[in-house]
Specification:
Blueprint: H1 3-11, E1 28-32, E2 35-36, E3 44-51, E4 54-65, H2 68-71, E5 83-90, E6 105-107, H3 114-124, H4 142-170, H5 175-187, H6 189-201, H7 205-211, H8 217-225, H9 236-252, H10 273-286, H11 290-295, H12 300-306, E7 318-320, E8 323-324, H13 334-355, H14 361-369, H15 377-384, H16 392-406, H17 415-422
Parallel strand pairs: 4-5, 5-6
Antiparallel strand pairs: 1-3, 2-3, 3-4, 7-8
Helix pairs in contact: 4-13, 4-16, 5-6, 5-10, 5-13, 8-9, 8-10, 13-14
Length: about 425
């Protein structure tokens, strides 16, 4: 039994919904199962259920065992405070809310038929097609692939223009502030990208300009705005940053951003939000105008030199506040820089050129060809089908292809599908 099966059952309501009751015996009716959450937090958001005649709206969390709630430390995460239903396969423990009341629990195993379990084993776990044309796509030549990948890459860059233009208008045409927001999201990676972006959007870039020359000032600002100083009480360096942050709050009369929740879960120490924000802060301390410096770079190698920063000595023996580690200099690696380049630097360079009515599409694709291809499940599957992916331009192109053509079944709008159908 896998938790993904429970997600499937709940999402599509594949169980006997007549006579549903919680483990406490309360009559339960599912009005809406909620929306599957692909990020951090509860599994399903905005669900609606009837319990004993009352309508409840909130989140639903799903586990194989009820005790997983404590095993995953949800009791210490305020994102789970609005969970209205705990759906489990095995009720091996009682879960209490912060108020001390039992969390309403549905024992799903009591409402799933043996036929459903058999169907799961025979059908649900069978490997499905990755893309519709995977058995025929080798008929699409390498030359055709080369042209199509370049076009797809440009499409991907063009698709980001609208969002960047909207951001530019919201930030009063301040391109440097736009770069800060894009870099913040990129530095947060998948796990903290949204949190870092929220922090950046709610932090006035004018303040960043004013305090960038203050010792530890920008680091204190970003850590505080990201909520990473809220629970720190003993670490001297963190207390120093907290004191500095409190001074800024009073001086500039701003509030801590709402809805910013950074996570350390499932992250290697070099990607801890504390370290990444310290690096981001030093990047803007080092460069008075990072955007101008970047636009003058002729190649990615020159751009990488902009990311050669020196962190405060505290970070040589820390990845997080209060937890000492072996001494190592925390440089921004080439691999991390290239991820940032793909997700922030190339899109803003493309959008900036577009706003200036300059044609730089070919030059930006040339940059992408000098960056390493991303490594993820989608790229691995395309490689297994024989598609050449030897640089970031190709990997970005194929990510765009999968999301905007294959998943949407736009086969006749795709050069591969069109060619295969034509032949």
């Amino acid at each position: 039994m896998k938790e993904v099966f429970l997600h499937y059952l709940w999402r599509f309501q594949k169980f006997d919904r007549k006579g549903l009751r919680t483990t406490a015996g309360t009559h339960l009716q599912v009005i809406h199962p909620g929306i599957l959450n692909a990020g951090a937090g509860p599994d399903f958001l905005n669900a609606q259920i009837h319990l004993a005649g009352l309508l409840w709206s909130g989140s639903v969390e799903i586990h194989l065992q009820a005790s997983d709630w404590y095993r995953h430390q949800h009791q210490n995460d305020d994102r789970y405070d609005n969970v209205i239903l705990h759906v489990v396969w095995e009720a091996d423990a009682s879960v209490l809310l912060p108020s001390g009341e039992p969390l309403r629990t549905l024992l799903l195993s009591e409402f799933v038929s043996p036929q459903q379990l058999t169907h799961y084993q025979k059908t649900f776990l069978q490997p499905s097609h990755f893309i519709a044309c995977e058995e025929s796509m080798q008929r699409f030549s390498e030359a055709d692939w080369s042209l199509w990948k370049e076009r797809l890459f440009i499409e991907r860059m063009e698709s980001r223009i609208f969002a960047i233009e909207s951001l530019r208008k919201d930030l009063n045409n301040d391109w440097e502030a736009v770069l800060f927001v894009l870099l913040a999201k990129a530095f947060g990676l998948n796990q903290n990208g949204v949190a870092f972006q929220k922090m950046a959007l709610q932090t006035d870039f004018k303040i960043i300009r004013k305090i960038r020359s203050v010792s530890d000032g920008l680091e204190a600002l970003l850590m505080g705005q990201a909520g990473l100083l809220n629970t720190v009480t003993q670490d001297p360096y963190a207390l120093q940053l907290t004191k500095q942050y409190d001074y800024f709050k009073q001086k500039f009369n701003f509030q801590t951003p709402l809805g910013v929740h950074c996570t350390f879960a499932r992250l290697r120490p070099p990607n801890f939000p504390t370290l990444r924000l310290a690096q981001l802060a030093q990047l803007f301390v080092k460069h008075e105008s990072l955007l101008e410096a970047f636009m003058e770079c002729k190649t990615p190698d020159y751009a990488f030199q902009l990311f050669e920063i020196q962190l405060p000595s505290y970070w040589e023996k820390h990845y997080n506040f209060g937890a000492e580690s072996a001494r190592v200099q925390k440089k921004i690696s080439r691999n991390f820089f290239e991820l940032v380049a793909v997700n922030a630097l190339l899109p803003i360079r493309f959008a900036y050129a577009h706003q200036q009515h300059k044609k730089e599409a070919e030059k930006i694709f040339e940059w992408a060809q000098l960056l390493a291809a991303e490594q993820n499940e989608t790229i691995k599957k395309f490689k297994a089908l024989g598609v050449t992916i030897d640089h970031a331009g190709a990997s970005q192109a194929l990510l765009h292809l999968k999301k905007n053509y294959c998943d949407s079944k736009r086969c006749l709008s795709c050069n591969v599908g069109f060619r295969l159908m034509k032949n």
